[in-house]
Write a structure and sequence with these properties.
seven-stranded mixed β-sheet; binds 5'-O-[(S)-ethoxy(hydroxy)phosphoryl]adenosine; GMP Synthetase, Chain A, domain 3; Rossmann fold; alpha/beta; 655 residues; 2 domains
Length: 655
Amino acid sequence: MNEESIESTLHEERLFPPLAEFSAQARIPDRATLDSLAQAANEDLEGFWATQACAEITWHKPFKTVLDSTNPPHYQWFSDGELNVSYNCLDRHLREKADKIAIIFEGEPGDITTFTYHQLHQRVSRFANVLKAQGVTEGDRVVIYLPMVPEAVIAMLACARIGAIHSVVFGGFSAESLKDRIEDAKAKLLITADGGHRGGRIVELKAAANRALKEGCESIQHVIVLQRTGHEVDMTEGRDLWWHEAEAKADGNCEPVWLNAEHPLFLLYTSGSTGKPKGIQHASGGYLLGALTTMKWVFDIRDEDIFWCTADVGWVTGHSYVAYGPLAAGATIVMYEGTPTFPDPGRFWKICQDHGVTIFYTAPTAIRALMKYGDDIPASYNLSQLRLLGTVGEPINPEAWMWYHRVIGGERCPIVDTWWQTETGVHMIAPIPGAVPTKPGSCTLPLPGINAAVVDEKGHPITTPDRGGYLVITKPWPSMLRTIWGDDQRYYDTYWSKFGSQYYLTGDSARRDKDGYFWIMGRTDDVLNVSGHRLGTMEIESALVAYPKVAEAAVVGRPDDIKGEAILAYVILKGTRPTRGADKTLTEELRAWVGDQIGPIAKPDEIRFVDSLPKTRSGKIMRRLLRTIARGETITQDTSTLESEAILPQLQGKE
Ligand code: WTA
């Protein structure tokens, strides 16, 4: 960002106070209760988190130190306490909840399996013994490259049980990405499967794993292979073993290893804007605490809830809200293997109906994709069990929020728009559903104990409402990342250099409105500068998506002699794509609309109608690629994730 702050062009005035019926039963039922929590945290941050940590976590050895900030930015939490995360997710529930369903799994082909807490405990203990038999011990890294099946969670918890550090690699990643991650983590063991079901096809995980191991990955000693699809795969004698065979031989008892609260629980690689992926390293105690408190505060989790977070375990959302958070809270989760549109775009709603999902958490990209198919499909399923909805991953466009609210939530379910990052571990800024009125597109207010601010270039808080700036976290929090695996320097440079080791730099831009609500404007490198006005791409996109004919939009800048930057919008329509030449009227309609909604400054200079947009595996629009294309530069990015290469000419405006 330059000296000036970012101008906000999104003016959203709709306000949705919590419904009385919801609040009456909520864990945090009103603003006064929330304010008293927040006040306790403001007065004594350490005391506040210590109280939470004692209440939420079962400690083997209680901690005496709360926050150790002797070596910033290497903050430590509860560092003399001992616990085991798998014990907290399983063993401690056995007395009262042994027969409660922990996981309801639905495979893409339609197979359904359930696990009670007792059964899950058994499977995890057995598999932990399998790991031990392969020589895995405390501190070793284990890479998990599995489809979205219960065994992925079992493998994670088994690692946690013996103190091995897992690193889950999303099953959609290529052999090359897998290899990079294995090598960076110097993993000893790889856990994969013969395949997984996605979009009606089989994802060839073992084949990709074989390719990765052929070219390097010397640290890997063994590969454990889960049988999921049953089709033929190449096994290497002496190196590879079948999960079911190993598990059949293993003992069902495995005492948890008591670990220091700072013991690394997992690494999770995220791609930075440049360079190789960063191994975000999380600790055990603080992370678990954040996962538990947010399950209670933000998801208002109750014993009878059926909780479905649609994220893959390969993402942080899957770590915190498929595996650790809900299981530590003793909840029942739904896990689904496949895509939202297989065999048809009603699949998500059918799963909600069939399993009686009460809390549903997904990404704006999924909402926009399903919204495109209209209201009739969700209307044909019974979604009356739903009581709370959530979103994560990107700013949600207000119109997508309204659709989610109206069509999926039947205007009765609060929507929690949760802002957080792989690095933050858990939710940071999000509404407390029984207490905080929501506004479509705003993640509302920081959670108790979380100190967030919007600051200018010099690090001074921006006090003018709606002026955008850098989103920073001004005090340490328990679930924060501890470092980048093996690269402390990169940890300092990325997060703690711009404003020193005082403020954690999120990399996002945001503004606060007159009520103090936070509005995320996107990554700081996604800001346009049009004739000296700094505009958030996200807000122009939201204006476009608010036009009835538009399903999705991505806006990027390209250099312009006169304006500094010109605005190029890629637009997906709800109907068919107009061919080049036939799109002039629509382009004018859209330009006029954006002019009305935001102002003439934000009118796109060019609109390209496309069938799809390039997305990362986690569903974020690949803006850097779009920028390259918009500038007519040679494409250096990996385009293998595009739904079809055929859209390239469309993106380039050649078709
Ligand atoms: C973006 C996902 C707006 C943001 C948990 C952040 C969001 C990045 C939201 C982290 C939200 C996530 N509103 N933007 N509710 N949630 N983001 O590491 O830019 O995959 O920095 O973690 O996603 O993505 P990550």
